[in-house]
Amino acid sequence: MRQLFFIILVTSFLLFSFLIGFLCFIVHNHTIDFSSLQQDMQAKPSILLDVHGYQWGRFELEKRKYVTLEQMPEYLIQAFLVTEDRNFFKHPGISFRGIIRSIFVNVLYGRRMQGASTITQQLVRLKFLYSKKTLVRKIKEQFYAILVEREWSKEQILEAYLNNVYFGYGIYGVQAAAHRFWGIDIADISLEQAATLAGIMKSPLMYSPIYSPDNSFARRNLILKIMHDSNLISLDQMKNAQKKTLGIIENNNSSMAPHAKEMIRQILEIEFGKEQLYTGGLTIQTTLDFGIQQNAEVAFKEHVTDLKKKLHKNIDGGLLSVDIQTGAIRAMVGGYDFKKSKFNRAIQAHRQMGSIFKIFVYAAALEQGLNFWDVEIDEPFELALNGTIWAPKNYNDKFLGSMTRAYALSHSNNIVTIKTLLKTGIENIIDVAKRCHISKSMPAYPSLALGCVDVTPLEVVGSFNVLANHGMYVKPYLISWVKDVHGQKIYKNKPVVHQAISSKIASQIARVLSFGIQRLESLITDTKLDIQAFGKTGTNNDCRTCWFCGATPDLTTAIYIGSDSNESLGKYVFASRTAFPIWFNMHRNIAKNRTSFYYDTELKDIFVNWIDGTMHKNKNYPDTVPLLG
Fold first, then answer.
1. Are residues 388 and 246 in the same domain?
2. What is the pLDDT at residue 102?
3. CB burial class (10 A; 0-12, 13-18, 19+) of residue 484?
4. Which of 292-306, 516-530, 566-580: highest mean pLDDT?
5. What secondary structure, in 3-state letters, does 211-233 show?
6. Whether 482 and 563 share a structural domain
7. Distance (Å, whole) CA 627 – CA 613
8. Mean of the pLDDT values across residues 551-569?
9. Contacts 24+ apart (CB under 8 A), 413-419
């Protein structure tokens, strides 16, 4: 194995040497005009439109001004050189030692572990190449680097690099970064500020002093230590600088839906590149609705603020609302405070689905010929699993006797749902869940009935929307189209649509769940929604995550509440008091286009009997049943 490794290493080095020789031969007959690197960009911002044409955000450059090396403090230049390219003044644009080291490490680990980019290579990548990592790009990068070194002095290259380097979020160049982060010119920055700027280079996303201050602080102090170890600053300078705070100033140019904007930025930077996004004058038609988004943000913020005070927990969560027929995302709340965390909980957080998963159990049961009016017994129940006894319970440790499956779903009964799963077949239930785009691997155990599978709010809202959309799955999306500065459409969403379950089954489940909304409303307010709606709560073990997913004839909205550390919110903290009030307060203030669902005509008269229990004669059957989560 070791012999094979060295054969691969030597072969790679020889091929690389041949390539460099070939490139050097070509360089003698080629030249490139790099004068644009010293010019201020004539930038046109890209604008974000909501579904009604309201401009709710922009992608634009921070005010940019070209500065010379003489205007930059010496320790700023040293900070960048010591972290990005120690041998900058010695190599010819590409680092042979770095490339050999990169080949060695990459072969050793069997995948890309290290790059070997010099400052010159980073400069040409910033200005002339796309950012996607490919072998072709790497070859071009080396070729361009040799050309730049041929045309320019080292000082010119370094100056151009520091004026064009990208700090994330539309900030190009050290002058624009100093102005955005501290409100000063680059000539006036301190040692610790210079180290902060150099630290961002490793990853503008991970080490942003605005959105990841803890990471940025740690990275800055590491760079200060590296500068001291390299005899560039004294011990006292290092210690004094490491004590300083980041001192980042607030940016008053806040926008609606910051998590959605960040998601769009990531998508379009990959699609079109940073420069076109921030300077190309794109028109970005998003699916957000300003009115719905505002209502969602206010309802989420107000209720989570109240929960934080009552529960004394660091509570957060996510919200995602989609148009029923198209899947267009009308509102996205990725968290309580974007300034503290840009982590988008609406699309990135993975939480156990809890009782919302029961919709798949009953959808599969109906497909297999079972009925909602069939009676099951809610009673103590045990199963032998892998040598142990599993004795599931309801949330309140009570058993209510006989009930229809319709009643069991509308009241989120665990025992009857588990019995239904066993009669239906777990694989059939997993199949339905996958058709509804639950992507995570699902354990083939009876406990699956209780939702022991991690999902994102994006998956929950898309799968639950199947019930409101006549059994059709439509993939949620945020960008409808993008036009360039000339008005030509250069990007368009490609819908993903398919029939997940039958319209009749979707209608039956939706009708059952509509009774739950009525009880939930009575728990929190005397006010009623003036439209039809249905929904399902979900609370996982130890009340770590509380879900509510509900649909009106216009929108399906999924909400979860929990802590990022996934600790319990409290023994008796349920979705009816945490997630549902956000949904209710959001939807009661939204303008309605449609006010009623279509329900299967066979269901209109007899469903009330299935739900309220009048078909039962069991003397132990209660007149009222508390809400189960």
1. no
2. 52
3. middle
4. 292-306
5. CCHHHHHHHHHHHHHHHHHCCCC
6. yes
7. 15
8. 93
9. 413/378, 413/628, 414/449, 414/450, 414/628, 415/376, 415/378, 415/379, 415/381, 416/376, 416/377, 416/378, 417/358, 417/361, 417/362, 417/449, 417/450, 418/381, 418/392, 418/446, 418/449, 418/450, 419/376, 419/381
Cα–Cα distance, 398 to 154 (Å, whole number): 78
Residue 623 token pair: 């007149």
The CATH number for 172's domain is 1.10.3810.10
Phi-psi region of 502 (alpha: psi -120 to 50; beta: other; left: phi over 0): beta
Apex 262 CA angle, 258 and 265, nearest 5: 140
Do the beta carbons of residue 470 and residue 507 sit within 8 Å? yes
User: 14: pLDDT confidence band, cut at 50, 70 and 90?
Assistant: very low
Average pLDDT taken over every residue of the chain? 83
**Is pLDDT of 330 > 90?**
yes
Q: Are 569 and 563 in contact (CB under 8 A)?
A: yes
At residue 301, does pLDDT exceed 80? Answer: yes
pLDDT band at 112 (very low <50, low <70, confident <90, very high): very low
Rounded CA-CA distance 263/342 in Å is 10
Whether 561 contacts 317, CB under 8 Å: yes
pLDDT per residue as tens digits for the range 494-520: 999 999 999 999 999 999 998 888 777
Residue with tokens 């403090």: 73
Whichever domain contains 425, its CATH number is 3.40.710.10
Residue 616 banded pLDDT, cuts 50, 70, 90: very low
Residue 114 burial by Cβ neighbours in a 10 Å radius (0-12, 13-18, 19+): middle
Answer yes or no: is 149 within a domain.
yes
Long-range residue pairs from 179-184, CB within 8 A, at least 24 positions apart, any chain: 179/62, 179/63, 180/62, 180/251, 181/209, 181/210, 181/248, 181/249, 182/247, 182/248, 182/249, 183/249
Say which residue, 185 or 147, is predicted with more confidence: 185
* Domain with 450 in it: 290-612
For 155, the 3-state DSSP assignment is helix
Looking at the structure, do residues 364 and 219 belong to the same domain, yes or no?
Answer: no
DSSP 8-state class, residue 65 = -
Could you say which of 253, 269, 304 is where a domain stops?
A: 253
The count of C-alpha atoms lying within 13 angstroms of the C-alpha of 94, restricted to the half-sphere facing its C-beta, is 25
- Ranking 409-418, 509-518, 548-557 by mean pLDDT, the lowest is 509-518
